[in-house]
Amino acid sequence: MKTLLTIKILLLLFLLGVMNSCGTMMNLPAEGDKSTLGEMTPYTKQLKELPAPEEKIVIGVYKFKDQTGQYKMAENGSNWSTAIPQGTTSILLKALEDSKWFRPIERENIGNLLNERQIIRSTRKEYEVATDGKTIISDQLPPLLYAGILLEGGIVSYDSNVMTGGIGARYFGVGGGTQYRQDRVTVYLRVVSSMTGEILKTIYTSKNILSTTVNGSFFRYIDTDRILEAEMGFTQNEPVSLAVTQAIEKAVYTLILESVEDGTFRIEKVHEKELKDLLQKYHAEKEQNTNQLVGNKFSDKERTRASILVMANGDYIKGDYTDAKMNIGGKAGFKYFFNDHVNAEVSVGYEKLENTGIVKHNFMYTDLNLEYLLLPKFSFSPYAYAGLGSMYHGKNFFKYQFGGGLEYLLGNNLAFRLNAQYDMGFDDTWDDFVNGKRKDQAFHIGIGINYYFDQAKKLNKKK
């Protein structure tokens, strides 16, 4: 009895040690953090490293605010907290300051500034300075700077659950999984001339906000009245304030580059080569973004009109006999694409259909399929097809088939394929035995390559 108690105590201490190790591994907070400087985004450094302007530009921002009016999501009850930080004017002014291209002036709370200047004047009037019997009132203040351009705009949208997904598995009480969610914040920034009121430029940027969770669990009956259960997991949410900051900084960065390029802003001549390199990278990004889809995904692949397919298959008959055996076969084919999605395939192949110790036949077969490629502009794409075919073993056996799989484009020309196909016969004599109403069938699973022709020529033509 004492031995059992000792084992239980040791097991408890072991579990506590494992939990403590997991806590350290997953950075579970054990005590409060001290205050620190704010985090920097990738564009903070780029703004600070921009080449210097010929002359800093006086700029005013009256209000750059949340225009979405959206509240945070709440699973239970109401949540009246806003989804977007309300101090976005301060974030924009900090980005303008970091760029060292502007002299931001106070306009959001201009009333407070004017009141304070009035207080200064009133205070100075109360103190008279006498010189040679004359009274001098020192109440003059330097004039306020006026802005040559104004920045307007704001956070125009906050989209929740733009993309969600996850994966998990559980087997005999042991399992785990992961889930993710993407939100999206969108910023519009426009430049207005204070002299003419003309809108000189409009900039549009967006930023995805990622939330992920990982969890694992263990559930097992140790005895009829004893259960062992354990759980582990963590969640990470990208701060909305950092996402908004990055979108605003990206907008300011883009504003400077485009304004210099079209001559609205001027840069020091010694930095012209550096600016040329930055503009080259910027235009490359713009070119890439022409293929950008929701979720920060890019449809940047091109498949040509023709390809050659070679596959190795595992072939398995589903006929009238038992003990079917899977054998290795293969096929080769030619594909022609009528458009980006639809292609016709003609293929020839070899297969061995066998029931162990009963019957074994070798077949040569031909297939004609019509295939649909779901995502032709992406490296990874599912596909499905259906068609007619024939098998030859002493005579022709006609069939129809359907299947599908996944294709991954490794480079410009070569694609890797995983495939599954089901053959349905028009007769019941593939295994030389007729039994029942069901016709003979076969199942194939295979891997292979699909080589696309003239990919380089097509890319050069597009460029």
TrEMBL record:
GO terms for cellular component: outer membrane-bounded periplasmic space. Signal peptide: none annotated. The keyword Phosphoprotein does not apply. The lineage of its organism: Bacteria, Pseudomonadati, Bacteroidota, Flavobacteriia, Flavobacteriales. The keyword Cell division does not apply. Gene3D superfamilies: 2.40.160.20, ABC-type transport auxiliary lipoprotein component (3.40.50.10610). It comes from the Bacteria. SUPFAM superfamilies: OMPA-like (SSF56925). Residues 314-448 form the Outer membrane protein beta-barrel domain. This is Curli production assembly/transport component CsgG. Keywords: Cell membrane, Lipoprotein, Membrane, Palmitate, Signal. It holds the Pfam family OMP_b-brl. InterPro entries: Beta-barrel_OMP, Curli_assmbl/transp-comp_CsgG, OMP/PagP_B-barrel.
